[in-house]
Design goal:
Blueprint (H helix, E strand, L loop, with lengths): L4 H24 L4 H21 L7 H28 L9 H27 L6 E9 L9 E6 L12 H12 L4 E4 L15 H4 L8 E3 L15 H17 L3 E3 L3 E7 L2 E7 L14 H4 L9 E4 L8 H6 L4 E4 L7 E5 L2 E3 L11 E5 L4 E5 L12 E2 L4 E9 L2
Parallel strand pairs: 1-15, 2-3, 3-4, 4-5, 7-8, 8-9, 9-13, 10-14
Antiparallel strand pairs: 2-15, 6-7, 10-11, 12-13
Pfam family, one: Metallophos
Protein name: Metallophosphoesterase
GO molecular function: metal ion binding; UDP-2,3-diacylglucosamine hydrolase activity
Length: 397
C-alpha cells in the first residue's frame, strides 16, 4: 500500500465517525430519519467500495469516467456532511441561550445546502466555463522585433474525461484562435491514459493555428504509465513514438527535450521543451544543459515544461531562462477567493500552483496554467474555472 492511500483512509475514517455521530443523535431524538440516514450512508460506502475496486489501470475509458463520478459523489456528500455537522455541533457546547442554538443550527443547514449547490455547480457548470487570463511580461532581454509578441498557453486537456463529447473542446479551440496568437503552446496531459481518447477530438484540435505554430510537451498522463501495458517497451512506445505521431498529426510540433529558434526581423528567441513529470526526480538544471547547451547565452528563452517543480533556486542559479510555461497542478480543481486572496489545496504541495510568479529582480518568470480539463474528480470547485492564458511580451525600455 502506497503512502497515497493513507490520507484517503484517514478521510474515510473521519467520515465514518461523522456518520456514526449523526446516526446516534438522530436515534436518541427518536427520529425516523435515523434509518434513512443509515441507509443513505451505506449506499455511499457501497458506491465507494465499487469505485475503488475498479481496475482503473486496465478498464475502458467509460468505466474510468464512471469511477470518477462515483468518487466525486462520495467526496461531495462527505464534504457536505462534515461541514453541516461541524457547525451544528457547536450548538452542543456548554449552556447556550435557545436563540444561539437555533441560529447555529440554521447556519449549519444553510451551509449544508450551499455546499450541495456548490458541488452541483462544480460538476455541471464550472467545468464548461472558461476564462482567458491576460498577462504582460516585460524584459530588457527581449529583442525589439518581438515587442508585443502574443503567446497563448493551454494545458491539461484530459480529453478522456469528456468521454467523446466534443462541444466544450470545440469552444476552447474557437476561443484560442480568436486571440490571434503568434505562438501557441500546450504544456502536457492531452489524455488520461490512452492515445485513443484523442481520436474524437482530432478534427477539432487540428483547427488550432498560430503564426509561429503550435508547440507541445508531454505530461505525466501522456507517457503511458497510467495503463497496464503488457511490457515496458509497449508503455514507452505509447508514451513516445505513438503520442508524438498522434499530436503531430494535429499539426502540432512536439518539443520532447528539443529546442527551436523563432525569428523576427533578424532577431531570435529560443523555445525549449523539457521532458519531466510531476513526482519524478529533476536535475538542478532540468536537463536544460543537455537540451540547450548554451543555456546561459543572451537569447531570450521560453521553456515549456509540464510541472512547476522545475522552478526552484537551484534551477534559477544554474540557468538563464526568462519564462517557463507549465501546468500540471489544476489548482487541484479547487480555488476559493477569500477577502481578496486566492486559496487552493494545491498550495500545500506546490509553492507555485497557479498564475504568474517572478524571481531574480523581475528577470525570471513562471506561469502555471491551471488547465482546461479534469481528472480524478469530474468537477472544478469555487473559482477554478478552465483557463487559457494570453501572455504579451514587451521589451522593457
Amino acid at each position: 500500500m502506497t503512502l497515497y492511500w493513507i490520507p484517503g483512509l484517514i478521510a474515510i475514517v473521519i467520515v465514518g465517525l461523522a456518520d456514526w455521530v449523526i446516526f446516534k443523535r438522530l436515534k436518541r431524538a427518536g427520529c425516523t430519519w435515523a434509518r434513512v440516514h443509515a441507509g443513505a450512508a451505506l449506499c455511499l460506502y457501497a458506491l465507494l467500495a465499487v469505485a475503488v475496486s475498479l481496475p482503473s489501470h486496465r478498464c475502458t475509458n467509460a468505466v474510468l469516467v464512471a469511477q470518477m463520478w462515483m468518487l466525486y459523489i462520495f467526496f461531495a456528500m462527505s464534504v457536505c456532511k462534515l461541514l453541516t455537522l461541524g457547525i451544528y455541533s457547536l450548538s452542543w457546547i456548554g449552556r447556550q441561550p435557545r436563540w444561539l442554538k437555533t441560529a447555529l443550527r440554521v447556519v449549519a443547514a444553510a451551509a449544508g445546502v450551499a455546499a450541495v449547490v456548490e458541488c452541483g455547480v462544480g460538476a455541471w457548470v464550472t467545468p464548461y466555463r472558461m476564462q482567458v487570463t491576460r498577462v504582460t511580461i516585460e524584459s530588457d532581454r527581449l529583442p525589439a522585433a518581438f515587442d508585443g509578441y502574443r503567446v497563448v498557453q493551454f494545458s491539461d486537456l484530459h480529453l478522456g474525461t469528456y468521454n467523446g463529447d466534443t462541444r466544450f473542446v470545440s469552444r476552447c479551440v474557437d476561443q484560442i484562435n480568436s486571440l490571434h496568437p503568434d505562438l501557441l503552446c500546450f504544456t502536457g496531459d492531452i489524455e488520461n491514459r490512452l492515445n485513443s481518447e484523442v481520436l474524437p477530438f482530432k478534427h477539432i484540435l487540428s483547427r488550432l493555428h498560430a503564426r509561429d505554430g503550435v508547440w507541445a510537451v508531454r505530461g505525466n498522463h501522456d507517457v503511458g504509465g497510467y495503463y497496464d501495458w503488457p511490457t515496458k517497451h509497449i508503455t514507452d512506445y505509447q508514451g513516445g513514438i505513438a503520442l508524438t505521431r498522434m499530436e503531430e498529426s494535429l499539426g502540432w510540433t512536439m518539443l520532447n527535450n528539443r529546442y527551436r529558434y523563432l525569428s523576427r526581423g533578424g532577431s531570435k528567441i529560443a523555445l525549449i521543451g523539457l521532458d519531466g513529470y510531476g513526482g519524478l526526480p529533476i536535475p538542478p538544471d532540468g536537463n536544460l544543459g543537455k537540451v540547450y547547451p548554451a543555456h546561459r547565452d543572451s537569447v531570450f528563452k521560453i521553456v515549456l515544461h509540464h510541472s512547476p517543480e522545475l522552478w526552484n533556486d537551484a534551477f534559477n542559479r544554474a540557468t538563464r531562462v526568462d519564462l517557463i510555461l507549465c501546468g500540471h497542478t489544476h489548482a487541484m480543481q479547487m480555488i476559493f477567493d477569500i477577502m481578496g486572496h486566492r486559496f487552493s489545496p494545491a498550495m500545500f504541495q506546490y509553492p507555485q500552483w497557479g498564475g504568474l510568479y517572478t524571481d531574480g529582480g523581475g528577470q525570471r518568470h513562471i506561469y502555471v496554467n491551471t488547465g482546461l480539463g479534469q481528472v480524478g474528480i469530474p468537477a472544478r470547485l469555487g473559482s477554478a474555472v478552465p483557463e487559457i492564458t494570453l501572455i504579451t511580451l514587451r521589451r522593457k525600455p
